[in-house]
Amino acid sequence: MHTDSDDIDTNNSGNESFASVLNARLTRRSLLKGSFGLASTAFFGAGLAACNSSSGSSESPTKVLKLSFDAVGKSLADALVIPAGYTATVLFRLGDPMAAGIADYRNDGTENGAAFAQRAGDHHDGMHFFGVGTDGRYNVAAGDRGLLAINHEAITPAYLHAAGATIVAGARTVNDEVVKELNAHGVSIIEVNKNGGTFSYKRDSSFNRRITTFTEMAMSGPAAKTPLMITSYSSDGSKTRGTVNNCAHGYTPWGTYLACEENWAGYFRRVAATDNPNRSAKELASFARYGVAGNGRELWATAVAADPSDTSFSRWNAMKVGTSTDGSDDFRNVANTYGWNVEIDPFSPASTPKKRTAMGRFAHEGAWPGPVVAGKPLVYYMGCDSRNEYIYKYVSTAVWDPADATRGLAAGDKYLDDGRLYVAKFAADGTGSWIELKFGSNNITAGNAAYAFADQADVLVNTRLAADAAGATKMDRPEWGAVNPRNGEVYMTLTNNNSTLRTLASTDAANPRFYNDPKGTAGTAQRGNPNGHIIRWAENNGDVAATGFKWDIFLFGARSTADAANVNLSNLTAANDFSSPDGLWFANSGLLWIQTDDGAYTDVTNCMLLAAIPGKVGDGGKRTITNTDGAATKAVDTYVGAPPGETNLRRFLVGPKECEITGLAETPDGKALFVNIQHPGEETAPNFANPAGFGSHWPDGGNNRPRSATIVITRNDGGEVGGVLV
Ligand code: FEO
Ligand code: CA
Ligand code: CA
After folding, report:
1. Are 515 and 529 in contact (CB under 8 A)?
2. Whose CA is nearest to atom 3 of ligand 1?
3. Closest by alpha carbon to 327, among 294, 265, 279, 286?
4. Is 262 a pocket residue for ligand 1 (Cβ < 6 Å)?
């Protein structure tokens, strides 16, 4: 394809170093609009410097990005499937030791609970690679030594304990089991080093750290130190204990990690029949909107500590049990201290993580930075992962000063504690707008009928309610986002929706499909949008702080055999068909990685990782599709991106049985790709008398219990993984 230095948004124009492309573009803008001046410009995280230094010779104007592997087939095997010419190495599994003198994991459930404070947690999820320079500090260009920050989203209790969790009459009766589960959540920081072409982790690194549900966290930003945050752990609302259900993640230009709290609400015990009479109407509205009700998914609050002053278990009880007026004698407000983005400095193992309340409280999937430009605000795109929830954008008040790149959590205080929070509204004409969630505007007022907002702290704690008031667009379950380093366009997976919550009548331009995806030989009906899609948008004028954008749908998940007119709208083939997109990650090269967490197409294949070379918003066109529920029909106009074809979209990896493919990180040179294999074998309840029948034995094989694990993938010839500039 013709490459044009003015046309940097096409998928074939990897024709200059990204720094020079961006600077050229910004210079052009500066000339046109006088806006950017001589701003130093960088996408970060994977880092331009590394890109330039590692592949400088490959960036002549004639080079284009091409997928550099043959697609793998769909698979139901209990094995990792990767393309010829690549090697996958298991790096870091559930239970692996993280300090000197810790024994290898026995994987039979016999380690005690405290041991997990120095072992890998379960359910590896979002992660990030932070390069370590020769001075031991963050270096965005370093690719051979790094710190890998890894979320441990949840647990499979059956395999954590010798014979599953002990539950008697609905209560946890073995406290050490609960302690083990509390420690198996959170985050791991591990040092990884390149040895002989691949990576291993350093068991005894002084950087290694476990952050768990026991770790003290500072509440930071506008909702900190307010009455909403008071618990018996913190009578001034300045701190809380722990983080939980950290799903995807974010990262900052100053080398810190954001562990995002997703399905935290379900961990708290709040028996509505008992507690509701003791709570205010506003509290009840908030609990209802976030789903804080029930016994708690792991029943932690039912365990009884031997020492009555030990609140390890009782802090998971969100009921009003004390007599104070402010909540300082119980944990009635504890749920307000969860649902945030948690900033962690991986380079400072003794530092206290901070929950950044300015970024809102919801089921945070992750937080993905937009382009970082000196003199412009920092921007984070965020999704709330539940069906019919919203997409958000945070815009810092402070404008980026590159001198802050070495300031760690102090930089976080500057950029992440003070900003504007917006929610997305997608219009039927292919445009969209960001509506500010600010007390006193956009129906977010004391007079709002659904919830009488008191102040901005109340808005941030009850972000979902504020977004309701503002008229945001309900989406088909936002999961990961990613920002294209070539043009700043934002991609976000909408993993799936069902026929109850996305009815035929409620399809709209941005969530346009309603169809049946028959599953298995019986053809079991799956109606709604069971296969999901990936939406993308371009901010108006390329301005990160814009309040308007243009959008289209990059890809629709589907079986390749599905109706091409109304379901398989991206013309997927056997080499690239998929369902339920979840993880996303852009390589510096512009390659887009797509991961799946699926239950719809699993009659045919396990979950997978695909590589794509995307185009840009508007490269396809308007299309009318006809939805049907089998009886009624409804025509919907939408905007479909240009079908990628097998040239620009191929299946790269298929995981073992019953896993989700998630957590994606990369060295800045693109030569090592870290991927998380979460909860293999999770759907089959184990019979410990018949280990051969476990749902999976990955990664250890034999009759072993399955383990979530981080793998690292490298090319046998040492080249870049997935795609190359040729
Ligand atoms: Fe934890 Fe939204 O997946
Ligand atoms: Ca996810
Ligand atoms: Ca998912």
Report:
1. yes
2. 247
3. 279
4. yes
Domain count for the chain, please give it. Answer: 1
pLDDT by residue (tens digit) across 262-318? Answer: 999 999 999 999 999 999 999 999 999 999 999 999 999 999 999 999 999 999 999
Query: Which ligand 1 atom is nearest residue 383's CA?
Result: 2
Q: What span, in angstroms and rounded, lies between the C-alpha atoms of 229 and 135?
A: 39
Asked if 659 contacts 677 with a C-beta cutoff of 8 angstroms, the reply is yes
The domain containing residue 384 runs over which residues?
A: 5-725
| pTM summary value | 0.92
φ, ψ at 328 (rounded to 5°): -85, 0
Residue 619 pLDDT grade (very low, low, confident, very high; cuts 50, 70, 90): very high
Ligand lying nearest the CA atom of residue 495:
3
Structure tokens at 38: 């001589």
| Residue located via tokens 């029949």 | 273
C-beta of residue 311 within 8 angstroms of C-beta of residue 300? no
CA–centroid distance, 690 to ligand 2, in Å, is 31
In the DSSP assignment, the letter for residue 579 is S
Specify the ligand 1 atom closest to the Cα of 262. Answer: 1
Ligand 1 pocket check for 247: Cβ under 6 Å: yes
Ligand 2 centre and the CA of 583: distance in Å? 6
What confidence category does residue 61 fall into, taking pLDDT thresholds of 50, 70 and 90? low
Tokens standing for residue 358: 């300015």
Q: Which burial class, exposed, middle or buried, applies to 237 when counting CB atoms under 10 A from its CB (0-12, 13-18, 19+)? A: buried
Token pair for residue 123?
């359910």
